[in-house]
Amino acid sequence: MFPSLFPASTIAIGSVRVGSGDLGVIGVSCVALGAIYALSRTKLGLAIRAAASYPESSRALGIPVLANNFIP
Known about the structure:
With 72 residues, the chain is mainly alpha-helical. It has two domains: 7-35; 42-72, no CATH class. It contains four helices and two strands, in the order ββαααα. The protein has helices spanning 20-41, 43-53, 55-60, 65-69, and strands spanning 10-13, 16-19. The chain has a two-stranded antiparallel ribbon. Helix 1 crosses helix 2. The relative contact order is 0.09.
């Protein structure tokens, strides 16, 4: 069995008790949704997708293809 990434504790928010693992899952989900939003709705996301799909055309339009390939 894999070790837990989050300590096994319970956090009380008002009258609701939430496990720290549940809060971790919610946090990771929010980060993933933010990344999806950034890649689909911003100029940086458009540039990254353009450089990945059409590197020659992107380079001709002035989008730095190599810089976009190294963004984690």
